[in-house]
Amino acid sequence: MTESSPSQPQAPDPHPTKSSLQLTLAIKEPSTSPPTLLATATNLHDSTSMTLLKWDTPFDDKAVLLGIFNIKDVKSGETLPNLNMKINRVTPPPHDAFLEIQPRSAITKELILSDMPGAKLEKDAEYEIQAKGTWKAVWHASVKDIGDENLKKMGGGSGVMTWDFESNVAQFKV
Fold it and tell me: Region labeled Disordered — which residues (predicted)?
C-alpha cells in the first residue's frame, strides 16, 4: 500500500457515488447441479458504509420471480421469458429488508438456478445471465447512523438515493 506525501494531499471523496457500489455475478465453483449463482454487492468507498434496501434486487428473496435476471441461451441468442412479477409490499420495510455494507467490503448471496419460473433451462445448454434494475433506496451511512425513522421513510429520508444497477454477464451450463 502506498501513502500520499504531504506535498500531494489526496483527500478521499467523502460522498460515495453510483460508482462506489458494484454488483457482480459469478457461478459458484466447482460447478453444482443445478448451477448456483453468486450475486455480490461491493462497497468500493474507502470510508463510508452503505445501506441498501434489498427489495427488487438480487438480494431480494423473490429476485428470481421479479424479472431482475435476464437469461440468454448462448447458442440461439434468445432471451428466456421471465415472470417479471410485481409484488405489493407492506411499508415501511422490516429491518431485515436492509443490507449494510462496510467500506471496502462486500456481501454475497447464493441463488440456485434451477428451472426459472416461466422458462425451462435445458440440460447441457449454455446460458448468460445478467442482473438489471434499480436500488430503490441507498444511504451513505450505516443502519445505526440512518436511524429507524429515516429507514421507514425510504423515499423521503435524509440522504436517500436511488441508482440503477447493471451487473456483469456470467455464463453457466446446466
Answer: 1-21
Cα(103)–Cα(89) distance, rounded to whole angstroms? 30
Residue 25: phi and psi, rounded to 5, are: -115, 145
Fold of 18-173: Immunoglobulin-like (2.60.40)
Cell of 125: 445448454
105 grid coordinates: 467490503
The full set of domain ranges for the chain reads 18-173
| Cβ-contact 40, 24 below 8 angstroms | yes
Provide the sign of the torsion angle of the four alpha carbons 44, 49, 50, 51, taken in this order: positive
**Cis ω before 14 (30° cut-off from 0):** no
CB 172 within 8 A of CB 113: yes
CA distance 119 to 163: 28
DSSP string, 1-45: -----TTS--PPPSS--GGGEEEEEEE-SS--SS-EEEEEEEE--
- Could you tell me which of 115, 103, 98 has the C-alpha nearest to residue 60? 98
> What is residue 109's predicted lDDT score, i.e. its pLDDT?
96
